[in-house]
Amino acid sequence: MRRSPRRPLILKRRKLPFQQNDLPAAESQNQSGPPASKEPSKSASSQCFPDGIRIMDHPSKSDTQVVVIPKTADLQSVIGALTAKGKECGEQGPNKFILLSGNGSRDSGGFCQPAAQEEHASTQIAALQTVKAETILDSLDAKPLTGIKPLNKDGGPLDDSLTNIQWLGKMSTCTFEADPSKQMPLKENQNPPAQTFQVSSVQQAMAERPPYSYMAMIQFAINSRKSRRMTLKEIYMWIEEHFPYYRDVAKPGWKNSIRHNLSLHKMFIRETSPDGKVSFWTIRPEANRCLTLDQVYKVTLVMSPLKNLKVEVKEEQICVPIKCETPKSTPKRQASCSRRKQCLVRSLHEEPILCPDNTFFDSGVASDVSTFQDIYTELDEHHYRQDSPDREFSFKTPIKSSSHISSSTPSKPPSNVLEPWKVTPVGKGSQSVLDFSPIRTPGGPAVTPRHDYTTFSFNSTPFKDWPLFSSPRELSCSGELLQGLVLDTMNDSLSKILVDISFSALDDEDFGMANISWSEFIPQFK
Amino acid sequence: MRRSPRRPLILKRRKLPFQQNDLPAAESQNQSGPPASKEPSKSASSQCFPDGIRIMDHPSKSDTQVVVIPKTADLQSVIGALTAKGKECGEQGPNKFILLSGNGSRDSGGFCQPAAQEEHASTQIAALQTVKAETILDSLDAKPLTGIKPLNKDGGPLDDSLTNIQWLGKMSTCTFEADPSKQMPLKENQNPPAQTFQVSSVQQAMAERPPYSYMAMIQFAINSRKSRRMTLKEIYMWIEEHFPYYRDVAKPGWKNSIRHNLSLHKMFIRETSPDGKVSFWTIRPEANRCLTLDQVYKVTLVMSPLKNLKVEVKEEQICVPIKCETPKSTPKRQASCSRRKQCLVRSLHEEPILCPDNTFFDSGVASDVSTFQDIYTELDEHHYRQDSPDREFSFKTPIKSSSHISSSTPSKPPSNVLEPWKVTPVGKGSQSVLDFSPIRTPGGPAVTPRHDYTTFSFNSTPFKDWPLFSSPRELSCSGELLQGLVLDTMNDSLSKILVDISFSALDDEDFGMANISWSEFIPQFK
DNA sequence: CGTGTGTTTATAAACAATGTC
DNA sequence: GCGACATTGTTTATAAACACA
Ligand SMILES: [Mg+2]
Ligand SMILES: [Mg+2]
Fold first, then answer.
1. What contacts A264, CB < 8 A, 6 or more positions away?
2. Which of A224, A250, B68, B498 has the most beta carbons within 10 angstroms of its beta carbon?
3. Residue spans with biased composition (Low complexity) (chains A, B) (predicted)?
């Protein structure tokens, strides 16, 4: 029995095979200082918490506490103190801390507004609540990274993990001047410009490969336009403008990859202008999470584990559902679940859908920026089939409840228990081998059960523990975002998060804060 | 304006990048004879037709004639005579000839029978009506190939085109002895066994790479089982058994490709055994055209163009619709059609759907074996959405009628003509930017219009010329097959075909014999 | 005929989950 | 149980073949 492999976070993204291109280890320039003794864990071990810090227990996770920090507080001190507190308490006490700023940080309405500037992505990188986080990052970055391995030019894991944050840091402090006069002089299967890399450090950093996939960058590009459509050439240009790596460093084949991604992913669809002369690319609205570069970035900073505190700064955007039944506790690991398609996992856990109740589909707030998946492809036709309930939500591989590990489908409908392994006859009504009537949760009529997990193979066990919403159209979201940090003293990780209190799709086994409606238990965030 | 690129025939398949593997040009062994003078075009230029040959005009194509040939006739002579006839008549006269055997050849019911042998594919390669064609091929093959380039080891285009037929020839004369005791000793990213190639010519030929894609081979494998399901390992074994190239020659990475294809293509779905211990792969029934190795193969023989007759032998399986309104004439080339997704093209033209009216879904006859596409992926949700007519059949790129090249959508519904380029608001009913109410053709209630081409961009022109069937489920097919050849004297090509008189999906600009119900105008085939 | 655009397949690889020893 | 390793599954990147405007 296998579960579907968990989708890797973009933070842990695979090393991109494109040339690291002999950049002289540009990641190293900020860590010039050799080991000094700035480890917050040691020096702040018995430190008292600054004034105004409020600590409350997590509503459902016993090992987690929520820490509300005033703006005036020294985050480094707080982190150090919480780290010490967590370590002192050991495994019995709280070892995960969700750090939230007291001011609420409710500027999230600016995401993906339908009437936004035609080009607004790159200039707003630091316009969100990420300013504070960048302060954290800067301070961390300025700290001496002790125990760091000798800089390896081949992009080792440490370099790789450092790349993202530095790439982000440069992105947030630099402006881009586009160079549209540049032409592509080479064939796509030829080699890169083979530039000399005596450019300035900033330019050099800009020429580092961004940590985003082609699919993500295409979404950034298209969503940067108010019209949400771009020609291929415009996509090229947008990417070259915002990620100079592709203009300056990458082999010409990256354009081939862009075209490949446009064709491959069903979320990208091609339209034709009224006169039929121009074809341009859009994103399926039902699949568009309106990712833009300014809201979607992630950083990882892994400091030396040898210095007793490995500080890992992630950023994620976590959505908390409102107006929906709060799901029952998410099992950290469902025992003996058959390996599912990752797409199915994400369709509920990690891939919340925008709320199409909004008249402007693009006013929804992007949720879960940990990946940039093609949710249309993943969810397939299930988005469209509320009107044919007996054929919706058929999935490839069943999901079993954790309470039925290897048993023979105890809670399945009896009509489906029979004749396992048989080919399902293709009748008029039911069309798929694995398509059986879904088990509907008692959701109200307005909130039709979604059943993303409710159709199983005849031999599977219904997964009744999940809250099931019939369709994203039935949900509403407010688009409120909160900035937060998660400090896990068990593995000495510090994760930067954005909490979307609109709705949530967290399937993170590291800290089970999914489905928390912050606005309900933290008054100052209401 | 661009049409979607026509899907390449598998006959013209791209060169497979896998190692041609230093095989000593095994293609050459049959063409040992140097140029003799066997060109039928010259010698048979004024040849009289043998007795019993009946020539009739094609019902719709003025440049095409249908030639019914008795079994006793010498096909070579007939081809030569027809070639000469076509050339003599020039472009005014008929230059395409559809050659059919007079005996009807109605053995098509054996395709894809639900109760077929568990393993029946490889032993029936010559069991169809292909026997005669193989005779042709053999005779052609035995002919000296004059003007052939010196054998190039690197797999030039001529070698490549010759490979298919020879591969087929060996397949049809050899039996396979599986060697299941063989293990995979290498990592997948390592190099092939680096065998010595002193094996016999037959084995050597068997070690040539088959001309089928991974997707096709997986379909062959899974469909060879009565249960229509296989574990990954079984798929490996089936392929190694039937295509020894992968067992003996290919790099271990081919298994990675198999897994990649299984995951990538939505037509392959993974199920789990009742106890959840085993997962196995199936084909979505609605996407399964039941391709098996014995029914699906194609050969191409390109003889020397220098010898005045380039004989190209293809085999295709062409389906002719019955019980459906005969579509209006297929335009050979629709002027100014916007480039469509190939999937959309094939969904009507080249990708006929099996008739799910059959109680056994797998009793349908595979149609159009020129490719082995993932029709589920291509058709997406459209198969399932007969119950929500206002949102079905939305396509990415519109199709315009040939009569409206650059005009501003004259025949569109007026509600859709307005506000081009605007983002479609995502209302409750309509979900997609390009999703407008389809224009329904006046198909009968039993044969609901299929509308594969009837949803367009608001700026497009409805493509009313196409016959539109609501769903494959509404169609019925008899599974009758006829063997035929198509001789095109304009380009000196001879195409071997199988005509499925059940229904058709031919979008071949080379000879417009789509939608011909042979049983209606050739009495001996009724 | 060359270029740009679009589609598809092949191949390698990163990575995750799980099974096996 | 644990760790090393193999198997299975998913996803992304890259190259390329090919079609076609
Ligand atoms: Mg696409
Ligand atoms: Mg699949």
1. none
2. B498
3. 32-46, 396-410
